[in-house]
Amino acid sequence: MAGSLSTAICIEEESMKVNELVYSARQGKWDTVFSILKTHPHLINTIPEDRRWGILHQAAWWNKEDLVKKLLNLPACDSRIESKETMSEVGETGGCTPYEIAQKYGYTDIGKLLEQHSSNLVTSEQLQELPTFHIQNNNDQLKGVCLLRITLSSYKQTFCPFTFNKNKPFAEVMEEIFKYIDTNENWSTVKIKVCDSLYTVCKPAVRVLNAVNTKEEFYATIVNVYTNESTQLYTYLNTALRRQDDKAYIPSAYDLGLGPYILMFNLLLMHWNKLAPDGVTTYRRMLMTDADCKRYQKGIQFVWLSFISSSNDLKKAEPFPTCVPTGEHAVTFVIDNQTTSKWQPRNIEHYALFPEEERLYPAGGAFVVTDRSENDGKTTVHLKLLERGLATG
Question: What superkingdom heads the lineage (predicted)?
Answer without folding.
Answer: Eukaryota
